Amino acid sequence: MTDRHEAGMQVRRTVLGSAHVDRAEAAKTAFDTPFQDLITESAWGNVWASDAISLRERSMLTLALLAATGNFEEIAMHVRATANTGATPEDVAQAFQHVAIYAGVPRANHALKIAKETYREMGVEL
C-alpha cells in the first residue's frame, strides 16, 4: 500500500468510524477493489487528509455538494460522520441553506429530510 492509501484509510476511519470501514472492507471483492483503492487514496488520502481546512468544514462542503448534485444516497453516511468531524446540526442546516439558494430548494429540502431522519436515528434532538 502507498503512503497516500494508509493516510486515506486513517482519515476514513476517523471520519466514518472503524465499524463502517471494517464493513466496507469486508464487503470488497476483486470487482470493486480497484475502485475502493481509488477513493481511499484520492478522496480520503489526498482531499480529506489535507490540513488546508478542518474536518468540520469538509463535512459541510461534502454535504452541500452531495445535496447540490443530487447524490442523496451518501448524505446519511456523511451526517453520521459529523459526530466525528465536529460539524453540528446547525452547520449542516446552514450548508443546506446554501444549497437551496445556489442549487435549488427541492434538493435542499430532500437533503434536510434525510438529515433530520438520520439525526433522529442517532438520537440527536433538533
Keywords:
AhpD-like; single chain; 126 residues; 7 helices; mainly alpha
Question: Can you offer a commentary on this structure?
Answer:
One of its GO terms (molecular function) is peroxiredoxin activity. InterPro entries: 4CMD/NDH-1_regulator, AhpD-like, CMD-like, Decarb_PcaC. There is one protein chain. The chain has helices spanning 3-16, 18-27, 33-48, 55-68, 75-85, 89-102, 105-122. The protein has 2 domains: 1-52, no CATH class; 54-125, AhpD-like (Up-down Bundle). With 126 residues, the chain is an all-alpha fold. The longest helix has 18 residues, at 105-122. Helix 1 (3-16) crosses helix 3 and helix 6 (89-102) packs antiparallel against helix 7 (105-122). The model has no long low-confidence stretch (mean pLDDT 97). The radius of gyration is 15 Å and the shape is globular.
What is the beta-strand fraction? Answer: under 5%
Number of domains: 2
Helix content: over 70%
Q: H/E element string? A: HHHHHHH
Task: Report the total helices.
Answer: 7
* Radius of gyration based on Cα positions: 15 Å
Mean pLDDT: 97
CATH topology of the largest domain: AhpD-like
Counting DSSP E segments of at least 2 residues, the number of strands comes to: 0
**Biggest pleated sheet:** none
Brief write-up:
The chain has helices at 3-16, 18-27, 33-48, 55-68, 75-85, 89-102, 105-122.
